[in-house]
Design brief:
Layout lengths: L14 E4 L2 E4 L76 E7 L3 H15 L5 E7 L3 H14 L5 E5 L3 H7 L2 E2 L1 H7 L3 H6 L2 H6 L1 E2 L2 E2 L2 E6 L1 E6 H6 L11 H11 L1 E2 L5 E3 L4 E3 L1 H10 L5 E2 L11 E2 L4 H15 L5 E4 L5 H10 L5 E5 L3 H11 L5 E5 L13 E8 L4 H14 L2 H11 L12 H9 L3 H9 L5 H4 L9 H13 L6 H22 L2
Parallel strand pairs: 3-4, 3-5, 13-16
Antiparallel strand pairs: 1-2, 5-19, 6-19, 7-8, 9-19, 10-17, 10-18, 11-12, 14-15
């Protein structure tokens, strides 16, 4: 996944390069995904796997590719054994061939995912002799969009840039990008467009124009410890799907010491704006009016202070008030997500809500902890009788107006390459994001991943069962970047008793955020 306007630390471990095949041992927090996460683990690549400059690197077909975290545990599936954690080495680039046109590509990946992405770039650079893509890795999504904004004045922009989902409207408003729809039409690539996952394509389509090409997409799910479920008499094959069901399960799962201190939370959580946004979609509720900014009129009012937001906050408050679990504080811009994750893998909590892209890291962490945690995954719970549905998180790649017509053609050629079913299957099976192409599931690397991690089918089903609507398409508004932290502050005020009610807390945040939105919209011509 969403996201997300935060200082994201990397939740990524790198890859073991053995015989040319990538074996992922950990995974990036995807999302919407702008929560702070664990620091990258260090890894050493096997010497035999280091690819010489100028050669193309592809995964050995016989290798079993890990669905590193992209795999959602089917309710009742048994956790796969985790591979030992490798160490991190920057993945080598290939040398630029004489006479090629350089295409600059900025992205927000580091560590593990940067290595997987670099393999795709290397493959592109050695697949043709006209263009050369040079990657520039920034520390995270927020720094990437901040760097892009800073560069607008000087005009020194990249040809291609990866931007997280909530930066969509702000990127459109720069007027320094060329919609990929223009290239799709000119290049007669309707088949590509038709094969994109509908929910993914929908997010990056505004006013019937697809502005950017999805690269990495994710959604949130519910993780639960199946071993703990069995221990307390809950059916691990029938995890709860509603808030009331989670509360009932948490009452059985929670453990306390003699002093009343929680030693195992029934459900623990961080105060995460991305999940709040997802719970709006689950209830068919808008974050912004009109129509989440999707109907041809710019979003001009934020409405996250309605019943849907209050329902989610009141649910979290019930967890705390009934002594069923703990909050570790705000997610965005902090390392609190690390605490939540570590507690889950050590068996110190029964249920958490997080990104699907964390699965492989959780499996690996649970195996390392050795406390018998059996990682299960189910669809993200919702209020009773809510229609359901989730929003795509993650990021897409944009083509800018930088350079001449040849450079822009090269940018499109590369972007089109990243969207090929083969490349999407390779990226998804090695990182944990969804493939953005439906045809990717026919690729052997994805078939291998699904065989090893059949749990992923739950995540696929959750995506495919989401009915298209303005609510599930997600909101687009220009001040989205930065708003999550302010919403999380309001959530925290309510959960800590500083605000009298969920409505009061969210009303205050909505007023402030609407002032920010008005100010932003006034600057857009």
């Amino acid at each position: 996944m969403s996201d997300e306007s935060t200082k994201r630390l990397s939740r990524r471990k790198f890859v073991a390069l053995t015989g040319g095949a990538l074996v992922a041992s950990g995974i990036l927090a995807a999302c919407g995904d702008n929560t702070a996460t664990t620091a990258p683990a260090s890894t050493t690549a096997a010497a035999s796997a280091t690819t010489a400059a100028g050669t193309s690197t592809t995964a050995a077909a016989s290798a079993t590719t890990a669905a590193a975290g992209a795999t959602t545990a089917a309710a009742g599936a048994t956790t796969a054994a985790a591979a030992p954690a490798p160490t991190v080495t920057p993945y080598p680039t290939v040398a630029q061939a004489a006479g090629t046109t350089k295409i600059t590509f900025w992205h927000g990946f580091t560590g593990f995912n940067a290595g997987v992405l670099q393999q795709i770039v290397n493959k592109y650079n050695t697949s043709q002799t006209k263009y050369y893509v040079q990657t520039v890795s920034n520390s995270n999504y927020d720094d990437t969009i901040a760097k892009f904004r800073t560069s607008l004045a000087g005009g020194d922009l990249p040809n291609v840039v990866q931007i997280y989902d909530i930066g969509t409207q702000a990127m459109i408003d720069t007027k320094k990008i060329i919609p990929v729809q223009d290239f799709i039409t000119k290049d007669n690539q309707q088949a590509l467009l038709d094969d994109l996952e509908p929910a993914v394509a929908s997010y990056y389509t505004v006013n019937k124009v697809m502005y950017s090409m999805p690269l990495n997409s994710s959604t949130p799910v519910m993780y639960y410890n199946k071993a703990a479920f069995k221990e307390v008499g809950l059916d691990p094959n029938k995890p709860p799907t509603t808030f009331s069901g989670v509360l009932d399960a948490a009452k059985k799962l929670v453990k306390k010491d003699a002093s009343g201190k929680i030693t195992r939370g029934g459900m623990d959580f961080t105060i995460y704006g991305w999940i709040m946004e997802q719970e709006h979609a689950e209830q068919g509720a808008l974050l912004a009016e009109p129509d989440n900014g999707r109907s041809g009129t710019r979003a001009n009012k934020l409405v996250f202070n309605g019943e849907a937001g209050q329902n989610y906050l009141n649910f979290l408050k019930s967890i705390l008030d009934q002594g069923l679990g703990r909050t570790w504080g705000r997610a965005s811009g902090t390392t609190n997500g690390t605490t939540l994750n570590a507690g889950f893998t050590r068996g110190e909590t029964g249920i958490i809500f997080e990104s699907i892209a964390n699965l492989r890291a959780y499996i690996s962490g649970a195996a390392s902890a050795g406390n018998g945690v059996d990682v299960g995954v189910a669809p993200l719970p919702k209020p009773d009788n809510a229609p359901g549905g989730v929003i795509i998180g993650g990021a897409s790649i944009w083509i800018t107006t930088q350079g001449d017509a040849n450079s822009q053609a090269g940018a499109w050629d590369f972007v089109k390459f990243t969207a090929q079913p083969e490349q999407q299957a390779f990226f998804a099976s090695n990182t944990g994001y969804y493939p953005t192409r439906k045809a990717s599931y026919n690729e052997q690397s994805m078939k291998d991943a699904l065989t090893k991690y059949p749990q992923f089918q739950v995540a696929i089903d959750q995506l495919h069962n989401t009915k298209p609507s303005p609510a599930t398409a997600g909101a687009v508004f220009g001040s989205f970047s930065g708003s999550r932290q302010n919403v999380e502050a309001a959530m925290e005020n309510f959960l800590t008793g500083k605000a009298a009610s969920a409505k009061a807390a969210l009303d205050d945040a909505a007023k402030k955020e609407n002032d920010r939105l008005d100010e932003y919209n006034s600057t857009v011509k």
